[in-house]
Structure formats: C-alpha cells, structure tokens
Amino acid sequence: MRSDPRHGPLVSMLLALTVVTGMVDAVSYLALGHVFVANMTGNVVFLGFALAGAPGLSATASLAALAAFLSGALAGGRLGELLPGHRGRLLVVGVCVEATLLTGATLVAALADHGADPARYVLIGSLGLAMGWQNAVVRHLKVPDLTTTVLTMTITALAAERAGRRRLASAVWMLGGAVLGAVLVLHAHVTGALGAALVLLVAVALRTRAAGTARPGTPAPAWTAPEGAP
Description:
Radius of gyration: 18 Å
CATH class: Mainly Alpha
CATH topology: Growth Hormone, Chain: A
Structural class: mainly alpha
Number of strands: 0
Oligomer: single chain
Low-confidence stretches: none
Distance between the termini: 25 Å
C-alpha cells in the first residue's frame, strides 16, 4: 500500500487495530457463548435470534455486550473531545486505555473459568468496553475507509466502486485477525489470543508515539493535525 503523507503511520496502525478486532471477536464468539463484542450488527442479530428462542444464544450476553460497547464508545468519544489537536496523542492514549482493559481481561481468563459466570460476563464487559472505546477513538481520527470494526459498508463500497486498496486491506486484515484469534482459542487458550492482541496494542502505542513526537524546536508532523485542519 502506498504511503499516505496526510495520515502518516495512522493507516498501518489502524490496520493493526483491525487485526485486534478480529482476534477479540474470535475470543468472544468461540469462547464466551456465541456473542460479539466488536461487531454490533451481528450482535443485534444474535439478540433477535435469542429472543426468538434460538438454541445456543443468550439474550443476556448480547445485551451485556451492547451495553459495554455503548459505554466504551461514550467514553472514547469524550476522549476525542478532550484531545482534539493531535491525532497521534489521541491514538496513543486511546490504545493505552484499551490495552489496560485487555490486560484485565487476560488476567481474568487466566485465573478463572472463562466459560462460566461471572467470569464470562466480566470478559464480555471488559472486551465490549475496549471495542466501543476503540471504535469511538478511531472515528475521531477520521482516516477514510478504516473504521477497524465495521466491514459491511467497506465491502459494499469496495464492490460498488471497484476501487480502494485501503478498503481491501481492511477486510483482509480483519480476516487475518479472526483466523489467528480462532487458531489460538481452539488450539491453545483464550489467554493466548488476548495476549497476542495485547502485544499488538502495545506495538501500536509505541510506534505511534515515536512517529508523532517532534524534535525540540520543530513542529509536530503534519499527519498529527486533525483532519480538515489547514
């Protein structure tokens, strides 16, 4: 993919977060009782199925994921309002908070039976918060075609407009994250998938901080300015 001077390293960093999304949803669907914590479209559909009495689905779990995601999105949106002037700083702070939530989830998965209540709901809550937070922070970054969580419109635009390497990359990286997360959940342990996602988050925070830090006496890199700024 070509370098994008307007967005600097944000494109590659958001693709890495897209991988994290795929991994986290693999954990929630495969290990927490067929519920999504990032894909709210799928989660609302699951809620409808559960309310209709479909076996293997939990309306309570879907509602918990929805509530956690909305809470995280509300808090992440507030962070975007507090840090409007430097996109690199916003991403670093956002990823650090998300990494803290994933660290807590990893510890819970390591120390408790993740398939049994209440640990299951603690994991759904913490992961839903993390994904809602990530989604809101990414919205404030305003990098076109990279939401890190929603692919329906991305794939539709890719097919309808027959263009967009960034859209294609987003879908491919989400798929890669889902495959990696599923392999780790099915053949290793939930903590392996969450730990791998945590490593990616730390890498994103460190790389973004390094790229967005200006030398003394020099202006911040152009890509750190809010989208639409002169």
